[in-house]
C-alpha cells in the first residue's frame, strides 16, 4: 500500500512516517511546503519527500499519483498575517480533495478536532467542520478522525505540559479546571494506519480520545510528580487573557486570540470513543506521561 501525507513535517506527520519507515508493507509520499523541510522527515527508502503547494494542483497531483490513500494533516489553530482559517483549514482541504478526485484516490483520511461543526460560533471549530464537509461530501471513501489534545514525544502538547510541570509555580488559563482526554500520538498513528488499510468506501466520522479524562491542572500536577517535583498552580482569569490576546493581536497581527483560548479551555467530551470501532488498545495516560519524560 502507498499513501500520500500532507503536513508530513508536523509532529503527527513525523510520527506517522516513522512508523511507516518500519513497515515494509507501506510506503509514503511525504508532502511538505519546501525542500528545507525534507530534513525533518525520516530517512528511509519507503519515504518519498515531495514539495506541495495547496494553490498548485499540479504539485498535489504529482504527490498523489498512484497512491491508495491520502492522509491530510495540514491545518492551523493559531492564525498569522500570512495564514488564516479560511486558507489553511478550508481552502487547503478543498485543494486536496480536488486533487485526490482527479488522481483517482480511493480513500481520504482527515485529521479534525473534537468540537468541529459547521454550525459552531467558534471560527476555528467552524473551519474544521467546513473542511470535514468537503471531505465527507467528496464522493471518495473517507475517515474523519476528530482528536483532542495530542501528547507524545515531539508534540506541542507534551512540550507545553512539561514546561508547566517543570516550574515551581505555573499560571494556567482558568486555573486549568477544564476536562481533557489526552490522546497518545502513537495511538493516533495506529488509527490513521487502520483507516488507510481498511479504506472504507463510505465517509465515516470517528471521535477518538484518550482513555482517561483529567483536568489540565491535575495533569500538570501528575507530570510534576513523575518529574520528582511539585508545582503550585494559579489561575490566569480567562477574561483577562482574552483582553490581552486582543491587544496583542492588534499590535502583532496574529497569535493567540479569544477563539484559541476558547478552544484550549473547552471540555473535551465525546458521546462514544472510537477506539473499539477502530480496534485500538489505547495507551494508558500514565504510560504516555512516562514515555514523554524519558524522551524529554
List keywords for this structure.
single chain, 296 residues, alpha/beta, seven-stranded parallel beta sheet, 13 strands
Structural features, described:
The protein has 296 residues and is an alpha/beta fold. 40% of the residues lie in helices and 19% in strands. It has ten helices and 13 strands. The chain has helices at residues 11-21, 57-64, 85-103, 123-136, 156-165, 185-198, 216-226, 238-252, 258-264, 285-294; strands spanning 2-6, 27-32, 47-51, 69-72, 107-113, 141-147, 150-151, 169-173, 179-180, 183-184, 203-207, 214-215, 232-236. The strands form four sheets. A seven-stranded parallel beta sheet has the order 3-2-1-4-5-6-11, with helices on both faces. A two-stranded parallel ribbon has the order 7-10. Strands 8-13 form a two-stranded parallel sheet. The longest helix has 19 residues, at 85-103. It is globular and about 55 Å long. The model has no long low-confidence stretch (mean pLDDT 95).
